[in-house]
Specification:
By secondary structure, the protein is of the alpha+beta class. It is built from 5 helices and 3 strands. It has a 3-stranded antiparallel β-sheet with strand order 1-3-2. A hairpin with a 2-residue loop joins strand 2 and strand 3.
Length: 112
C-alpha cells in the first residue's frame, strides 16, 4: 500500500476522540448498525452517526446498505495507511536505537 500522509493524519486525528475510538473498537470486533453501536455508549444515536461520518471521512469506516439499515465496518485501506505511517516511523526508531547501541558498545570497547 502506498503511504499517504494526509490519510494517515486524518485517521489518527479522527481517533483522537475517545468516543470515536470506542466506536472504532466496536467495529473492529464486528460490523454493526448505528443502533447496535450506540448501545452502551454515553452519547445519543445522532451523535454516534456524526462520529461515524468523521470516521468515514477519515477512511477508517465504510458503510453498506442492508435493507433499510446501514451496516458499518472498518475499512482496511484507511487502517493500512495508518499502518504504513507507523511502520515508517517504527523503522526510523529502530535505526536510531541500533545507532545508539552501536555507539554505546564502541564507547565500552574504548574504555577497556
Amino acid at each position: 500500500m502506498t503511504y499517504h500522509k494526509s490519510s494517515a493524519s486524518k485517521s489518527l486525528a479522527a481517533l483522537g476522540d475517545p468516543t470515536r475510538r470506542a466506536i472504532f473498537e466496536r467495529l473492529a470486533a464486528s460490523p454493526a448498525a448505528v443502533g447496535e453501536i450506540a448501545r452502551g455508549l454515553p452519547v445519543s444515536r445522532p451523535a454516534v452517526s456524526q462520529h461515524l461520518r468523521v470516521l468515514k471521512a477519515a477512511g477508517l469506516v465504510r458503510e453498506t446498505a442492508s435493507g433499510t439499515r446501514h451496516i458499518y465496518r472498518l475499512d482496511p485501506r484507511g487502517i493500512g495507511a495508518m499502518r504504513a505511517w507507523l511502520d515508517r516511523h517504527w523503522r526510523s526508531a529502530l535505526d536510531g536505537f541500533r545507532e545508539f547501541a552501536d555507539d554505546h558498545h564502541d564507547e565500552e570497547e574504548d574504555s577497556r
